[in-house]
Amino acid sequence: MGNGTSIGRVRGLGPAHHGAHHWLVQRFTAIGNVVLMSWLLVSLVLLGDFSHASVVKWLAQPVPATAMILLVISLFWHARLGLQVLIEDYIHDAGSKFGLLSALNLATIGGGAFAIFSVAALAFGRTV
Amino acid sequence: MNQRPLSPHLQVWRWGPHMLVSILHRATGDGMALVGLAVLVWWLGALAGGPQAYAAFQAVMGSIPGMVVLVGLSWAFFTHMMSGLRHFVLDIGAGYELDTNRLWSVASPLIAIVLTAAFWALILLG
What we know:
The complex is a heterodimer of chains A (about 130) and B (about 130). With about 130 residues, chain A is an all-alpha fold. Chain A has helices at about 5-10, 20-45, 50-60, 60-90, 95-125. The radius of gyration of chain A is 19 Å and the shape is elongated. Chain B has one domain (about 20-125): 3 helical TM bundles of succinate and fumarate reductases (Up-down Bundle), CATH 1.20.1300. Chain B contains four helices and no strands. Chain B has helices at about 15-50, 50-60, 65-90, 100-125. The interface of A and B includes residues 41 and 52 of A.
């Protein structure tokens, strides 16, 4: 944090010590979520039959599989940013904050990777 | 740290719908991040795991508590989406007039309830 210009005096403040990039990516992923969740909910309504065979037949097609993988990426990224803010706002101990943010990264990447692998496995016909 | 400005305590403000929609946005968003993503990952993992794994998922989600979770998640989604769309409008600098701000603070969660009901009507009747 500088003490000269007006921008220098505010740079680095706030609980995350940075801001605009996080704020923008939160909104970019929000747009992705609106578009792709609309696709998912409409698809579920149109699908109607939620048996294993029916859902797999639908999700294994190229376009639904791609859309689902993109949805997983957009949702997990957006959720990671949101939970990061929750942690930064309410956890004030530096060690706990570091630990929770590390756990958040592991959970986000691990959960997202597993979800993407599951969709890819269906699309490439592992179980059908 | 001690020299940094602090927000006034919550209780000095008169409670208004803009405060409700703000905390609802955080609660629904973080709720979905913690519960919704777990359900999504389980759903996709069970689909890839095969009919038996999927039957276990369906048994839990088709039960009364499971349905409460699914309906709750759909309500959280539509509530978060509506307050998120409200945020987009506020982000471009619009909607800060007191009447307009109040109107959309009240309307956003109400529209979300209508959308939740409409979604489940389509799922159950379709």
